[in-house]
Amino acid sequence: MSDVAAFTARAAAAPAQMAPLLPLRVRGLTLLRGATTVLDGLDLDLGRTGCTVVMGANGAGKTLLLKLLHGLIQPTAGQIDWQGQDTAAVTRRQALVFQTPVLLRRSAAGNLDFVLKARGKDRGRTATLLDHVGLAHKAQQPARLLSGGEAQRLALARALAIDPEVLFLDEPTASLDPASVLTIERIVQAARDRGVRIVFVTHDTGQARRLADDVVFLHGGRVAEHAAAADFFPAPRHPAARNYIDGKIVI
Ligand SMILES: Nc1ncnc2c1ncn2[C@@H]1O[C@H](COP(=O)(O)OP(=O)(O)OP(=O)(O)O)[C@@H](O)[C@H]1O
């Protein structure tokens, strides 16, 4: 078995004895920030597999929704039900990649060694993970000297190192060149194809069309529309979603 095939098989096999996290059921999710009601009784259901793309105007609450689902912040009201599992356990079985990668002041390999050791995983996987994201030749380079696209690929490798069942990505390609964007998309699609549940925030409608199995469109603190990608892109039903896809200003 090749290194990449071994990596893929191990990732897919990860949580055999654990109860599943999905499907996800969110009801009445409300979040106040200062005087602003960011989320206002949001309901959402996510199925077991695939890639959900979350879209919506600036300030619609996409980042805060990801942080809530991942257990990094607590809602003001409402329920997030990952099959009844405890929040701390849920967070450990998921990973979140931010728009701006947060990396340790170590080499590229050192960043992966660290997370593998912290999670009790096989540190021998560092080379395979670096290879998987096309960074084998940068293993010993300090992470702070990586380009934006390389740093984002390393952040993605670090997220994959924990064998997440759910991978949240918050505009991970927002400032990358087209080749780096496609590289990140290929890695995300490969993860999706081996069963990692993907929730991906993007403003890039081309990217959303390439990646999405289904689309969640946020507006007014709620899910204005949740539809299969094949139905959403040709004919969004909600007026705000239609304007957004048509490139009109949405307030
Ligand atoms: N700590 C805070 N105090 C007050 N308002 C906040 C705070 N954090 C976030 N907000 C507001 O909550 C709203 C939602 O923020 P969020 O970052 O989730 O938006 P977003 O949909 O990800 O936007 P973008 O597309 O610009 O990244 C914004 O109006 C933001 O200004």
From TrEMBL:
The keyword Manganese does not apply. GO terms for molecular function: ATP binding; ATP hydrolysis activity. Coiled coil: none annotated. Residues 24-245 form the ABC transporter domain. InterPro entries: AAA+_ATPase, ABC_transporter-like_ATP-bd, ABC_transporter-like_CS, P-loop_NTPase. It comes from the Bacteria. Keywords: ATP-binding, Nucleotide-binding, Transport. This is Tungstate transport system ATP-binding protein. It comes from Loktanella atrilutea.
